[in-house]
Design goal:
16-stranded antiparallel β-barrel, 3 domains, 7 helices, 18% helix, single chain, 502 residues, alpha+beta, globular, Porin
Length: 502
């Protein structure tokens, strides 16, 4: 009797295991091949649970994975993701539904190709590139302090100093161009840079034609966005020839360590688009050479030697030179004040200008100097010099361009200033880049004392605070002294500026 009851209990227990297990795990497939083999070899009767048999049957009914059909070499994973809904259920792959899947893949592939075509960048080898927007915005504030009753009484000034916008681009692996305009406070729009250049022209190297800067020094050719302080040095402002219409040829030698440019330009300044053009504008021949005998660590360490010369000719003596020599209060023409000037120089039909350049940079430390001279023959000679020392307290450095022979922008800021960062509740993340600057400037217009000429000394100290490579604040102080026939005068100029470029 006892054996009979045990047999009944075993039968009931086997029935519960068989049907209860299938009910609880209706979608679990056996993945172990050993378990599948054991299930297929066991009889279907007795106490053997049905789970392995059920798993084997379901695994056999599950269709094999669909063969991988790449949509393209660039986006195979997109095709797999997009077609996932069609292969998750076995019934989608049964019979003629394979045709539907292939058609759907073809549709997705076509859409992807169209998206690539619509968003593809122009090929610079066979077309012009997409124009790139460029520009700069400078907002300055200058306060002038001078002795009571001093004449003239220089005024303070604040406002938009410079706002430029333009486009640059290149194409066909041979050409580049730039079109830039500057808006000034009186509402007029001035022509700044408008030129096109061609590379590797036989006998001419890089050939450029249009309206652009004549190369007259290291600081000036770096551009107003890359000045060490708020402006070029006073002598740089006084002796440059500005922008003119002309053409030039550039050559690089000795693994780009030596750069030579020469060009010829019209004599009259045409910065303003609506300027009146004289019949006889004269001409200017200009050449400049730069040499970097030491260049290491991508320009973080560099020694620069350079020089430039300009012959300024006038066909009509009553026009006078294209520009007279004047000094600038605080080194900036933003204040619109010229303490010393040669005045209109008459009785000549040409003059010569030139200068030498020297600079050395070693990591965050940089020192540079320039000397200028303008020889007006019997009318007199003007000259000037500047020396500048700077140091990045945070370790950054300026970028030196062998292709242009100048210092251009700032190298990457090690820790950009981000005052509004919210991650980890930091109020300030990074302190930006800090650069201390000291500069001395001397301008000699002593041969024109009878027309308010004389000598000017400028001592400047300042600090640059770069939030990022293209956004900075400038703080500076200049003590300027003039010696003229009217006596000695001096001013203290405090300047601040916010500058952004793109």
């Amino acid at each position: 009797m006892k054996k009979i009851w045990l047999s009944v209990a075993a039968l009931l227990l086997g029935s519960n295991l068989t049907y209860g297990y299938d009910t609880e795990f209706p979608s679990v497939f056996a993945a172990d091949p050993v378990e599948q083999a054991m299930a297929s070899s066991e009889p279907a009767s007795g106490l053997t649970p049905k789970r392995p048999q059920t798993a084997v049957i379901r695994a056999q009914q599950t269709p094999p994975p669909a063969p991988f059909i790449p949509v393209s070499q660039e986006a195979p994973r997109v095709a797999q993701i997009e077609t996932a809904p069609f292969v998750t259920h076995s019934e989608s792959m049964v019979g003629n539904n394979d045709t539907y899947v292939y058609a759907e893949l073809e549709r997705i592939n076509s859409e992807l190709q169209q998206i690539r075509k619509d968003t593809a960048k122009p090929n610079p080898k066979t077309s012009w590139s997409t124009p790139k927007l460029a520009g700069r915005l400078h907002h300055d504030l200058f306060t002038v302090s001078q002795p009571d009753g001093a004449t003239p009484n220089y005024k303070n000034k604040a406002g938009l100093n410079e706002f430029r916008v333009g486009i640059t681009g290149n194409g066909y692996e041979a050409f580049d161009y730039k079109v830039e305009f500057m808006m000034v406070g009186n509402g007029t729009v001035n022509l700044v840079d408008t030129w096109i250049g061609a590379k590797n022209v036989p006998g001419l190297g890089y050939f450029r034609v249009g309206h652009y800067n004549i190369e007259t020094g290291l600081m000036y050719m770096g551009g107003s966005s890359n000045t060490t302080l708020t402006n070029f040095s006073p002598v740089t402002q006084s002796f440059n020839l500005g922008r003119k219409f002309g053409a030039s040829s550039e050559h690089l030698f000795a693994d780009k360590r030596v750069r030579w440019i020469y060009g010829i330009y019209q004599g009259q300044n045409t910065n303003v688009t609506r300027a009146v053009q004289a019949d006889n504008q004269g001409y200017i021949f200009n050449t400049r050479m730069s040499y970097a005998p030491y260049f290491a660590d991508g320009g973080r360490k560099v020694l620069h030697i350079g020089g430039h010369y300009s012959y300024v000719g006038e066909k009509s003596s009553h026009l006078g030179p294209p520009s007279a020599i004047s000094t600038f209060l605080g080194g900036t023409n933003f204040l619109g004040q010229s303490p010393l000037t040669t005045g209109a120089i008459t009785g000549i039909n040409h003059h010569h200008r030139g200068g030498v350049e020297l600079a050395y940079q070693s990591g965050p430390f940089r020192v540079l100097s320039e000397t200028f001279i303008a020889d007006f023959g019997k009318a007199g000679t003007a000259r000037g010099t500047v020396a500048e020392v700077s140091y990045f307290l945070t370790g950054e450095n300026r970028v030196y361009s062998l292709e242009n022979g100048v210092f251009v922008g700032l190298a990457k800021v090690n820790r950009p200033f981000r005052p509004f960062k919210c991650g980890d509740w930091n109020l300030v993340d990074g302190m930006g880049a800090w650069q201390a600057v000291a500069r001395y400037n001397y301008t000699d217009l002593g041969d024109w004392r009878d027309t308010n000429g004389g000598y000017q000394h400028d001592w400047t100290v300042g600090m640059n605070w770069f939030w990022t490579t293209n956004l900075r604040c400038i703080f500076e102080y200049t003590h300027s002294t003039q010696y003229a026939d009217a006596g000695r005068s001096h001013q203290d100029i405090f300047g601040t500026s916010i500058r952004v470029s793109w």
